[in-house]
UniProtKB/TrEMBL annotation:
Protein name, per record: HAD family hydrolase
Any one of the GO CC terms: cytosol
One Gene Ontology biological process: DNA repair
Residue spans crossing the bilayer: none
Taxon lineage: Bacteria, Pseudomonadati, Pseudomonadota, Candidatus Muproteobacteria
């Protein structure tokens, strides 16, 4: 039986929004334009959830700050302006968030996106009013460090024991563990079931509708 919580902290990409393909495409285009090595789709999928600086450091360990910054800047160009494809919410997310809000849950977002990027998708989806707090990777240390989550707990006055993190990567699971917060994994995002299960979440769920039922 699911434990009772007051605050649910969601990851964004791969948990609420089906954006992995766009992120991979924008990274590969940015690396190509920056004349930097392209590791292919799967290594890029594995770093989704990290802040941009941390993601590029993982993808380009043999390159210096100038190379990585060039790729970061070009990635932002693609994601915010040049790639016209608009990512969509996963099935059941909009209805599920309304249901959770009506059920009395407070909801927040802790994401590897920049503030500018999160503001854009919250505006496009109209979901901004759903969340009492949001924290981004350009405002705090990147996952798996717990700072984003600790900042949200502080902003909401919530004790860690009353909060639940829901995410699709090991970075989300580790962030929660470092903050002493329970975590629930979703397996429809970027990290595999075995990777997530190794982090010992409360459960590994295959759809957002399963998340809704787990919380009901």
């Amino acid at each position: 039986m699911a434990r009772s919580y007051d605050l649910i902290v969601f990851d964004w990409d791969g948990t609420l929004m089906d954006s992995a393909d766009k992120i991979v495409r924008c990274f590969r285009n940015a690396l190509r334009d920056s004349a930097l090595p392209d590791p292919g789709d799967e290594p890029i999928r594995q770093i989704i959830g990290l802040g941009l600086d941390e993601a590029l450091a993982a993808l380009l360990p043999g390159h210096g700050d100038a190379d990585r910054q060039r790729a970061v800047d070009r990635y932002r160009d693609y994601f915010l302006h040049l790639d016209a494809d608009q990512s969509v919410l996963f099935p059941g997310v909009r209805e599920g968030l309304v249901e959770m809000s009506d059920g009395g849950y407070l909801m927040a977002v802790a994401t590897g996106k920049s503030r500018r990027g999160l503001h854009r998708v919250l505006t496009e989806t109209g979901l901004a009013p759903m969340f009492v707090a949001t924290r981004c990777a350009d405002e705090a240390r990147s996952k798996p460090h717990p700072q984003m989550l600790l900042d949200i707990l502080d902003a909401t006055g919530m004790d860690a024991s009353r909060a639940l993190v829901i995410g699709d990567t090991v970075y989300d699971m580790d962030m929660a563990r470092h903050a002493g917060v329970d975590a629930l994994a979703v397996t429809y995002g970027v990290h595999r079931h075995d990777q997530l299960q190794a982090c010992h979440p409360l459960g590994c769920l295959g759809s957002f509708d399963e998340v809704r039922r787990w919380l009901a």
